[in-house]
Amino acid sequence: MLKIAEEKDLVSIVKNAVEKHGAQADEFIPILLEINHEYGYIPGEAIRQARKLLHGAPGKSPEERVLVSEGQLYGLASFYHMLHTEKTGRHVVQFCESAPCHVQGGRELWKALQQTLELKAGETDPQGRFTLKTVSCLGVCGVGPVMLVDDDLYGNVGPEQLADIFARYE
Ligand code: FES
């Protein structure tokens, strides 16, 4: 799972991400991914810092500067399932709630997931081990129902497999 690096300096993490990928509109996602990777989520302050750096990129004339609002960056961070705008547990479980998965056993899996983890959507357990989220179609409907644990995709998941799957994550 993503490393939580709260002790790292937020400004330098954001600065490194912007410098590494470049202050261009088509690099917003890689920049946000980088911040997410370092922190485990994207703090609101990181979005404000990223916007400042994108606007004031050195060597850019006012016409070349990337103008982006905090709202746009936040919208991107909220839209992509790989990015998290709230602090999460060490592992993020994302359950596909779209219709094709729903009719292939998703409803039963969702119930079992909530029971097994003792969590509802958006919650993190008190030990900070798992966060449970729902997500829209992940593009692999043929193997539904589907869930992600961090970057690991699980297809054709049955409730009876959950204990084994979660035992792989500390
Ligand atoms: S509907 Fe679940 S992966 Fe497409």
| CATH topology description of the largest domain | Glutaredoxin
Q: How many E-type strands?
A: 4
The outline comes out as elongated
Order of the strands making up the biggest sheet: 2-1-3-4
Name the CATH architecture of the largest domain. Answer: 3-Layer(aba) Sandwich
Distance between the termini: 10 Å
Unreliable runs: none
Bound molecules: FE2/S2 (inorganic) cluster
CATH evolutionary superfamily of the largest domain? Glutaredoxin
Radius of gyration: 18 Å
- Binned, the helix content reads 40-55%
Q: Number of helical runs?
A: 6
Supply the helix-strand structural class.
Answer: alpha+beta
- Describe the sheet with the most strands: 4 strands, mixed
| CATH class type of the largest domain | Alpha Beta
Q: How much β-strand is present in the residues?
A: 5-15%
Order of helices and strands: HHHHEHEEEH
Domain count, please report it.
2
Nearest-integer average pLDDT: 89
Keywords:
single chain; 170 residues; alpha+beta; Glutaredoxin; 4-stranded mixed beta sheet; 6 helices; 11% strand; binds FE2/S2 (inorganic) cluster
